[in-house]
Design goal:
This is PilZ domain-containing protein. The chain has 116 residues and is mostly beta strands. It contains one helix and seven strands, in the order E-E-E-E-E-E-E-H. The protein has one domain: predicted glycosyltransferase like domains (Thrombin, subunit H, Beta Barrel). The chain has a six-stranded antiparallel β-barrel with strand order 2-3-4-7-6-5. Strand 5 and strand 6 form a beta hairpin. The longest helix has 11 residues. It is globular, with a radius of gyration of 14 Å. The termini are far apart.
């Protein structure tokens, strides 16, 4: 069975190369934050799709550190989980993260990378 959802990103998606990742903290059931890392599937100026091995809670706001292959800098951005789907029995999940409005210098740099 395949679940379908609408593509709500207005910008063109850019396929992520191998070696592109994000790191983020999630508060675990014991109340302690734990750092997670996920592989980027694709990205745009307004959000990302990630591959992860634990479900991400829809609506959760995350502080993200994004590393792009071939770029010396990482980008510290804020995003919100919009959807999360289990895609196989391993289990592997795909999750959509929408960037929140951000006036930071990292967000401005991110926009430049996406526009290039």
């Amino acid at each position: 069975m395949s679940l379908q959802f609408s593509d709500e990103r207005a910008e063109q998606r850019i396929s992520a190369d191998k070696g592109m990742f994000i790191q983020y903290k999630v508060v675990e059931i014991d109340g302690k934050p734990r750092v997670h890392a996920s592989t980027l599937f694709d990205y745009s100026c307004s959000g990302l799709k990630v591959v992860c091995y634990e479900p991400l809670p829809i609506g959760q706001i995350l502080q993200l550190t994004i590393g792009l292959k071939g770029k010396p800098d990482s980008y510290d951005l804020t995003g919100q989980i919009k959807w999360c789907l289990e895609v196989d029995e391993i289990p592997t999940y795909h999750a959509g993260i929408c960037f929140l409005d951000n006036a930071s210098s990292d967000f401005k740099s991110w926009l430049e990378v996406c526009a290039a």
